[in-house]
Design goal:
mainly alpha, elongated
């Protein structure tokens, strides 16, 4: 008998809590400052800087974190120099062709095609014209030339330096050279 009374009371309490909830009105907010932070004005008047309000320029000669400068110029002479002298810092144990293929499919395959034949989706839809195959006779693809092209872009191809970091560029280049070798068989 006592257990039936307890179950009845518990059921009434649960039903009363459930009936108080309405999805049409907002719930209570407890400590809203924990997840709704106060917005501060970025360039407000401040005594932190000697000149008052202004964006501070970096110290001359400083290099941003995670950035490696590329000392070869974005010219035809620079391209020739890179093509002749620049070599991959990755040795055979560091080359990951699966990762290179993944990056190639994301960034390069849309124009160059997944096999490197120059028949990507954008070429087939005639959005971009004149993407040559890696197997074309005049295409002397080298590590340095490919790196320079990825870094600065060439002809209709833009730069991918801001999308692919240095190590990923070399992985893509290793995969491109594999595609070229496969097409020339």
């Amino acid at each position: 008998m006592k257990s039936i009374i307890k179950i009845t009371i518990l059921t009434v309490v649960l039903i009363s809590f459930a009936s108080c909830k309405k999805d049409s009105r907002p719930n209570y907010e407890y400590m809203p400052n924990m997840y709704e932070s106060v917005g501060y004005e970025t360039y407000q008047e401040s005594n932190a800087f000697a000149n008052g309000v202004e964006a501070q320029l970096p110290v001359e000669g400083s290099i941003p974190r995670g950035y490696t400068p590329f000392d070869i110029a974005n010219t035809n002479e620079g391209f020739s120099l890179a093509k002749e002298t620049l070599k991959s810092p990755l040795d055979s144990t560091n080359v990951d062709l699966a990762r290179g293929k993944e990056l190639y499919d994301i960034y390069c395959g849309i124009c160059h095609g997944n096999k490197g034949k120059g028949q990507g989706k954008l070429v087939k839809r005639e959005k971009i014209l004149g993407v040559p195959s890696y197997a074309d006779a005049g295409r002397a693809i080298t590590e340095g030339g490919a790196y320079h092209t990825i870094y600065y872009g060439k002809n209709a191809m833009g730069s991918y330096a801001n999308l692919i970091n240095e190590e990923e560029r070399w992985q893509v280049i290793a995969y491109v050279l594999k595609l070229k070798a496969d097409l020339e068989k």
